[in-house]
């Protein structure tokens, strides 16, 4: 059975991580360098994180069930947080070990071999990380993006390790080894914190501003006269899936069938824009006479006020849980039973 594309990328990351950790520990055995050990220990996390990312992508691909009506996509954010937590712990230990090495420097052996081996692993990590980030963004997978960014981080750490070994080889000063490990420890801690922050943001449904802006722009560009107003727009990401709900004001005299057709058009428009599974719930609100001032319906049988101004939908006003109304300068008169269709 052919594995899904995202699963294949996650499996590639796991295999690459296992091979490169072996190479880095071999380089540490040759050099006895603190910065190489730091790099190798940080890379162990790649294996655990890649395995968890692989499992989370498998879970995220499962269909909805009674216990998970919105699907299993949130697990990918948990994967990013788990990976960030591991990076934080590793960075803390690396920082501590670097301080000890700075206090009691020791000789680094065969730094030239260490540079060659580490540089090779850095190049492989950069290439794999680029593939994962690109695939994760194309398929809207936070787990793949997080795993790829971690490999970028690992590659940066390795290049720093190479530079430190080069300085040791040129100057015969062992302090460069410990100082580089100290700097890497701090760098790793900061990036681990950022990954945890991104995970918490996704799990807590923090507003995805760029996605909301994309939805608003699409509705504004293709708005129809019967879509008088859009408000209370909310967007949630569940892994690669989107859940969107909003309120749309429409002429109150439309039949249930006509209202349903407009709701279906809105859902289809948004789904086509993103090209990924989109679950959209649209609540239809009946219009009031205050909406006449910015209603585009030209053949409205119950209009009480002339069209004055279009209200442009933006991120600032569509997200509010209130209808957009121009100031009503004169109170509308009630409709007769004939006009209401009673």
Secondary-structure map:
Layout: H1 5-31, H2 34-60, H3 75-103, H4 111-138, H5 142-171, H6 175-203, H7 209-221, E1 229-238, E2 241-250, H8 256-274, E3 278-286, H9 315-318, H10 337-340
Parallel strand pairs: 2-3
Antiparallel strand pairs: 1-2
Helix pairs in contact: 1-2, 1-4, 2-3, 2-5, 2-6, 3-5, 3-6, 4-5, 5-6
Explain what the structure shows.
The chain is built from ten helices and three strands, in the order H-H-H-H-H-H-H-E-E-H-E-H-H. It is mainly alpha-helical and 342 residues long. The chain folds into two domains: 5-203, Up-down Bundle (Alpha-lytic protease prodomain-like), CATH 1.20.1510; 209-340, Alpha-Beta Plaits, CATH 3.30.70. It has a three-stranded mixed sheet, covered by helices on one side. It is elongated and about 90 Å long.
Keywords:
Alpha-Beta Plaits, 3 strands, disordered C terminus, Cation_efflux_TMD_sf, three-stranded mixed sheet, mainly alpha, 342 residues, Cation_efflux_TM, cadmium ion transmembrane transporter activity
């Amino acid at each position: 059975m052919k594995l899904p594309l995202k699963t294949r990328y996650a499996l590639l990351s796991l295999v690459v991580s296992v091979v490169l950790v072996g190479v880095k520990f071999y380089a540490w055995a040759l050099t006895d360098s603190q910065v190489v050990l730091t790099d190798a220990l940080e890379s162990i996390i790649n294996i655990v994180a890649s395995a968890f990312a692989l499992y989370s992508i498998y879970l995220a691909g499962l269909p909805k069930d009674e216990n998970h009506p919105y699907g299993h996509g949130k697990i990918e954010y948990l994967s990013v947080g788990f990976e960030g937590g591991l990076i934080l712990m590793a960075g803390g230990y690396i920082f501590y070990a670097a301080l000890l090495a700075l206090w009691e420097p020791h000789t680094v052996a065969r730094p030239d071999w260490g540079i060659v081996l580490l540089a090779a692993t850095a190049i492989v990590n950069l290439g794999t990380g680029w593939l994962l980030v690109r695939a994760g963004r194309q398929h809207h997978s936070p787990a793949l993006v997080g795993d790829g960014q971690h490999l970028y981080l690992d590659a940066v750490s390795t290049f720093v390790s190479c530079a430190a070994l080069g300085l040791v080889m040129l100057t015969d000063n062992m302090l460069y080894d410990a100082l580089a490990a100290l700097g890497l420890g701090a760098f790793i801690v900061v990036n681990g914190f950022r990954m945890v922050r991104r995970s918490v943001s996704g799990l807590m449904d923090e507003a995805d501003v760029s996605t909301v802006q994309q939805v608003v722009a699409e509705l504004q560009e293709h708005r129809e006269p019967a879509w008088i107003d859009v408000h209370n727009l909310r967007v949630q990401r569940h892994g690669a899936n989107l859940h969107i709900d909003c309120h749309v004001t429409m002429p109150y005299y439309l039949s249930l069938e006509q209202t349903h057709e407009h709701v279906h058009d809105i859902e289809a428009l948004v789904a086509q824009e993103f090209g990924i599974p989109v679950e959209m719930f649209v609540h239809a609100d009946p219009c009031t006479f205050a909406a006449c001032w910015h209603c585009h319906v030209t053949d409205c049988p119950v209009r009480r006020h002339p069209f004055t101004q279009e209200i442009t939908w933006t991120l600032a006003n569509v997200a509010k849980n209130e209808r957009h109304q121009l100031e009503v300068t004169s109170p509308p008169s009630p409709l007769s039973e004939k006009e209401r269709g009673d």
